[in-house]
Write a structure and sequence with these properties.
This protein has ten helices and 13 strands. It has 358 residues and is of the alpha+beta class.
């Protein structure tokens, strides 16, 4: 398991090498992920592979546009995540998975490493961009986490765009829910009100959507270092297919799926089996390791190995104060990418892409 985590990262060695050879550390740096899991080369067609890479590149472009202009790490991670929340290829925002009751319930969190302020939301159903709601909680309320209808009401009061719940519907995820419930012997809910008729939806990337039995965690996230030396992390997810009883995973739990601290020298966004990431306090532990002197790569590798030892699967992206990103996973793939002021954008999907020419 540790071997997988280690080999998954070497793909970005060229980026680290370019940064190391530069006279100065990068002025800014950004890394993103679109979920980790069982993502084999054989499971994606060339068209699907290209669609994911293009989506990752667009997210990198959105975040780097902020950082290039001297913008904040917070603005950059929000920009990157919001773009992925609108992309039905990922399990966040539009394209999120359904609960057993046939609803899309969305979670997100953001944290500012400069002052340890944080915001999180869980169970949103009408706010278009959950990551924007999480930031509003951080900046416009005295709280850290809001949930359910109250969180949507707060987001609306904060002026964030509200949509009909059907906005998040995609046929691929609905059919995935039916399959999961059928296999579990659970009742299938009525098709959501306002959803397009079966076969009528022509969503972006519909022709290249992955198969229904894909086994990955489609959570999206971003970590960044800006030109002022500030770190930030953001994560957003639709959770687990057929989740019940108001289940909430690690993403909105500060210290589990999301954490950033300039004092500790790291920002983390995680994706994986949330129950295990919560139990391991993954994001906070990584920052504790860096505060104790570990490199971000060593900290990420060690933490993912620990998660794996108790049965958890997934991955993390980590940004340190040097601007060199770290990626670690114990799965066969993780949608990911990175770019900085001294290194061109690179994206990857599979764990064994190290050394390959794009």
């Amino acid at each position: 398991m540790m071997r997988t985590a280690l080999t998954a990262l070497c793909f970005f060695g060229l980026m680290a090498g370019v940064q190391a050879q530069a006279q100065d550390a990068p002025r800014w740096s950004l890394a993103i992920h679109g979920g980790a899991g069982v993502i084999e080369r054989s499971s994606l067609t060339p068209e699907q592979d290209a669609a994911y890479r293009a989506s990752l590149q667009r997210a990198l472009d959105a975040g780097s546009a902020v950082l290039t202009q001297g913008g904040s790490a917070l603005d950059a991670v929000q920009a990157a995540v919001q773009l992925m929340e609108d992309d039905p290829l990922f399990n966040a925002g539009r394209g999120a998975v359904f609960t057993a009751a046939g609803r899309n319930e969305l979670d997100a969190a953001v944290m500012n490493g400069a002052d340890l302020t944080a915001g999180a939301v869980a169970g949103l159903t009408t706010t278009r961009h959950p990551i924007a709601a999480a930031r509003a909680v951080m900046e416009q309320s005295p709280h850290v986490m809001l949930i359910g209808p109250g969180a949507d009401a707060f987001a609306a009061q904060a002026g964030l765009e509200q949509v009909d719940p059907a906005f998040f519907f995609t046929e691929r995820r609905w059919q995935g829910l039916i399959k999961a419930l059928t296999e579990a012997g659970l009742p299938i809910p009525e098709r959501p009100a306002g959803a397009p008729a079966p076969g009528a939806q022509a969503a972006p990337h519909a022709s290249v959507a992955p198969p229904l039995n894909e086994k990955k965690f489609g959570t999206v996230g971003a970590v960044a270092l800006d030109s002022q030396g500030r770190l930030a992390a953001a994560t957003s997810t639709g959770g687990m297919t057929a989740k019940r009883w108001g289940r909430v995973g690690d993403v909105p739990i500060i210290g589990a799926g999301t954490y950033a601290s300039n004092a500790d020298g790291c920002a983390v966004s995680a994706t994986g089996s949330g129950e295990y990431f919560i139990r391991s306090t993954v994001a906070r532990d990584i920052c504790t390791r860096t505060a104790d002197g570990a490199t971000v790569q060593a900290a990420a590798d060690a933490e993912i190995a620990d998660v794996g030892s108790i049965g958890g699967d997934g991955g993390v992206i980590v940004m340190g104060l040097t601007g060199t990103p770290a990626f670690a996973m114990n799965t066969s793939g993780m949608y990911r990418g990175a770019v900085s002021s001294t290194a061109a954008a690179r994206v990857a999907i599979y764990a064994n892409e190290e050394g390959e020419k794009e």
